């Protein structure tokens, strides 16, 4: 029996489905939601089923999780060795259709190398409902036009797969809240297969396809503890020249960056968007050992990332 | 500038006069009784012909050529006085045509970039005879094009005559056809002088001089006759000279002829005798005899080294080939008059000059301006060599590393340029030329431009300029800015070189002087105008050329410049050395846009921050050692060699924004003599001698060297501690975020601190170099006519530190009144300036102890002066007062300290005077009062009173706010109300103040609603207090809004003609309907708000949409705005900016009148906009002048005149009814509200108007728009007018991101594509509408009524300026 965590439960369809399982399977459901418009949907559920606990907090805030982990609700969750997938705890999360979702995903993934956050309990399996556009960025293959820094970070930290065929969750309006308006629907085309998804409805409109994906942290984490900042910097700077060969783009890392090329054991005529995680590892290692790695720019570049983390005051 | 190529005579014609109430329609026709210039001409082709007839030149005057004392033509320049002209002269020019349309007239006034490009290419090709045949082909094709022809002028013809002669003069070689060049010359000369000439241009002295020289050198009777040349006989040539009324004595003075003066004279004398004109022959003999020797003989030894010595026939005889290297190699080193070894820094020139040219400041000034860049390179070499000799590792080496690098880069870059430029030439010669719309050849290459300066100079410039742009920047500089600025610097330097060369033999320039009154000033100005001006005209480059030249050079530098770094490898701990590029070109994403940057190597940046580069200071940005040259034209005045241009950062008389229109207006007004008073006022400002205040300098230097933080002096290292990296950094995003934020803020603060230190360091360097000197600030104006000193770093308009460092160079005995004013000045500068004058005197006397302590022990003492509002100026005043008191007789103490008189909220003073607001006038001290009124306190009290009233009624917000509205809460809003602060702006200002009150607000929401509430009341109070001002502001806004939507009559005709062709519509002449798409109508909105200041300066608002062009350069593709392409105006910006600009044009006028008035009384005068300075002893006299000029300014019916001008300037301009309907909602609401008894809303500022709360502010602005809702209904009710209400493109939105930046550099904007939003909008405008046009003048709102305040009272107001 496992406690289930749901973040952004919304009107609670997923929560309801979880509660349909018997207590022997689902011991406890913790729903993190603070939207006043949605709580009235969840509260009757909680009243009806004592297994459901509503945490009135914002899933985007980090304090939410640290508070939760300190609370009695999680006291019985055991810590498991990293080698095995955590048998008890699971996270389910429906990512909202906002720009913040990408930041949130990125932050979740970044905890894996450090075994921080919920990964303190072990290799936690996660299920996400994601806007297709976000999934597209998280899972792009080398040379795909959407391959980006986030893709590399995903590959470096997790195994990912679609957990349901695309068609199962289509059309959007039949499965998800909030309902798209008529205007939204006119703009959004129903996509049943991947091939149906055109540039036009890959955007961030209400009504565009959502997918269900499962994420499991890798046993072997290539990103070293304390190495995240370097990964961030290296991938961010190089992806500015995503269509250039590594031998050119390496100059983005700092003046004289070309001197790093001799440390790289792969074909540096490869394009930046073509690199795979093991190749990125070499670039990052070379950078870390570079006497002239720029420190000031790293801080300034990081500012963009951290500013996305919602301030606790807001 | 091209538009100056055509003489100004037509402008003179287009200038009419209006006077106060004496206006009658006839007066507008002008004294010539001419027909209307361009405006009535519906056929542009005729216009150009009419235009051509009017074009005159210098040689139209006396019929008898040799009259020894020719009667001067009646002067177009008004006599100088501090009174206003009785009639305001207008400058009328056509409204620019929409993008893509052209006419000769338009091309003449607003030449587009391709024309400009053609001229600058031709110029570059002609320099040193680089490629004359190609230039000649371009020229011929220009002359064939009827449109381009209107842009040609005699200077250009002369360039070609000169170039042909130069080619003919070259040594005969194989394939060199001397006779062909001479035939080209005589052919062109024939065209130029032909009486039946179809060419517009007429010859001038230089044309004849060239022809005469050609005759002397190559005619049959010369030493080297050339056969097969169709040249005129001597007699025929003399006949032409007489026909053209050339004064032969004057011709003989042409510099070109000076080496052959005897031969020339002989030739003409023979011709005269042969033609039976013995009289002429005799006069000529005398003329040659009296040709005066050069007065500048004394200086050439210095010139010879610092500037390459060109032959007298500057352009003409210079031959193609490598320029002289300006940094001599070591073996040549001894030739310089400088002692290189002792040369420490660039500014040393000032001192150096002092040593070698001790009593000739003019020569020193020349030296400074001429040797700008050479000295830098010389010093690098010197220091690099010194380093090589020393070769001691460690600290001293560290110090010269930068110089060492620069010297290496310099050498390798020269080598590279010497190789690359020929390669580039070859590549470009292969590419074919491009045809432009004008049918001229537009060659895409930049090689000709790269030959204009010696490669070593370009290398020096590239290095110093790039480092200068990067100083204080965040480790890099935007590519666009760097490339355009560098290109511009190259252009300016080329221009300066040309002018230095051509004026090397010129007699001393006429300078302004600080002596004498207006009569003397007028005499100086006359003399300056009469001095032969030898400066050459160099066509301006296009932005594209600047960007490409700049990129080419930057690319070359970045390719060769490296730095060596040593670092430790983390894994092995070994030391590693790397040779790294010093600069790198990269892209960064900023707000979603990809921006090209040039980044500096960390190592280089570190060096730069420990060692500021003094090379970055350009002498043409320093104070002058001699009084500036008088301003006699837009580009003539100020620095010795600053014949500088509109769009480049050197110093023309006006700081233009992207406005070709403004420049055309200014030139026309200048040549019509309208700007005489303004120029004279600038001369007065420039003639004020300054010096460094030594005691203050010593204190600043002491503080600076300790590195301590002081007011305006940032500390050496910021006392910032970086936080330790939090332990949970990796796992706690919040901790990580906070850490990164603090770190990043610290980096930011350090950068800022460094940048301010750089700035202060420049100031100190300049101050040190000018210690003990008497120096001057040349002044120019912005587009509203406000005056500014040209040197940017250290001037009296700078901050408190700058002002403290400066003092008048002349001293004046205090006298009793001056003594009193000095005491008041101390109180004022401390901040005790709200009390009566008597109280201020007493206050100072009560604080004598502190004052003495500050004066004698500024740093060691109690540091009382640091508590002052303006500490450095206060300290200066303390020292002055102390010295006066300690002197044997304070009343006889000679004081040099400028004492200030400041206007009380000067903008409101002008508004109050315009509106005749009694109460408002009192609050800004126009009226007599016992004590200075403080408008901020008054408004704060008004607000308090209303809060109390509301609180009594139980308003919850009022209860909380009651008693907390201090003066400073409303101060900024009151101050900015003059500048049209919007409701949103006011709310934010007030919110900042409320947030600062402890305990008042807890949450964001609270602070917001309190701010809204207070802002509402504050604005209402201001509206009540300055009712007149408010309605004037509203009126001005509406008028400008209408004008910016109006279309000139010619264009309406054109639109109607198009409509005629479409079947089914019935055109009737002026009130016709027309079927046009909305976008076509918007495209026609080319009319900007233009008015004339009471001093005759035309002000043209530059706010137009920016059209950016893509330019391919060596580094990257950049997008820059083309200043030569006037596009549609931004009606919203035109309207909202008009009131503040108008008021500024008035305060500028007041300042200039005061400057002239003070000069007339021989007072020393300086100004910072509305703060007027003079010697303490002269304050009373100046105060009287300030009041006199203000009263005189406002005694004229300023607004009445403005309305008259508008009615004349925009006569027959029309507005599409469909665009006036944009005003409908407001009118509609207004009329409804009027019925309901509500005040009408404002439509001054859409942002504010949209906010319901601002409506109450405009209580006074009733009945502003004559075009009412009813009118609108009437007009649009007729069945044939179909107006699509929703199709009006919202112009305001499209230019929301338009920035108005005083800095000319900001013009080069960043890479970015057109926003899809704007594109979609344009498509939306394609819907067809039918519309009517109404005459602009018919719907102008009536002037708001004026209050009863009597302006004469100001004369007795003590505190008006105090």
Automatic annotation (TrEMBL), chain A:
Taxonomic superkingdom: Eukaryota
Pfam families the UniProt entry points to: RrnaAD
Leading EC class: transferase
Main location, first listed in the record: mitochondrion
Molecular function as annotated in GO: mitochondrial transcription factor activity; RNA binding; rRNA (adenine-N6,N6-)-dimethyltransferase activity
Places the protein is found: Mitochondrion
Binding site for S-adenosyl-L-methionine: 33
Entry's EC annotation: 2.1.1.-
Keywords: Methyltransferase, RNA-binding, rRNA processing, S-adenosyl-L-methionine, Transferase
Any Gene Ontology biological process: transcription initiation at mitochondrial promoter
GO CC annotations on file: mitochondrial matrix
Function recorded in the entry: Mitochondrial transcription factor that confers selective promoter recognition on the core subunit of the yeast mitochondrial RNA polymerase. Interacts with DNA in a non-specific manner.
Family matches, as PANTHER family: DIMETHYLADENOSINE TRANSFERASE, DIMETHYLADENOSINE TRANSFERASE 1, MITOCHONDRIAL
Stated family: Belongs to the class I-like SAM-binding methyltransferase superfamily. rRNA adenine N(6)-methyltransferase family.
Protein name from the UniProt record: rRNA adenine N(6)-methyltransferase
TrEMBL record, chain B:
SUPFAM superfamilies (alphabetical): DNA/RNA polymerases
Catalytic activity: RNA(n) + a ribonucleoside 5'-triphosphate = RNA(n+1) + diphosphate
UniProt biased composition (Acidic residues): 1294-1304
Name of the top EC class for this enzyme: transferase
GO molecular function: DNA-directed RNA polymerase activity; mitochondrial promoter sequence-specific DNA binding
DNA-directed RNA polymerase N-terminal domain: residues covered: 363-687
Compositional bias (Polar residues): 32-44
Swiss-Prot/TrEMBL GO biological process terms: mitochondrial transcription
EC number of this enzyme: 2.7.7.6
Subcellular location: Mitochondrion
Region (Disordered): 23-44, 1221-1253, 1289-1320
PANTHER family tied to this protein: DNA-DIRECTED RNA POLYMERASE, MITOCHONDRIAL
Known function: DNA-dependent RNA polymerase catalyzes the transcription of DNA into RNA using the four ribonucleoside triphosphates as substrates.
Name assigned to this protein: DNA-directed RNA polymerase
Species annotation: Calocera viscosa (strain TUFC12733)
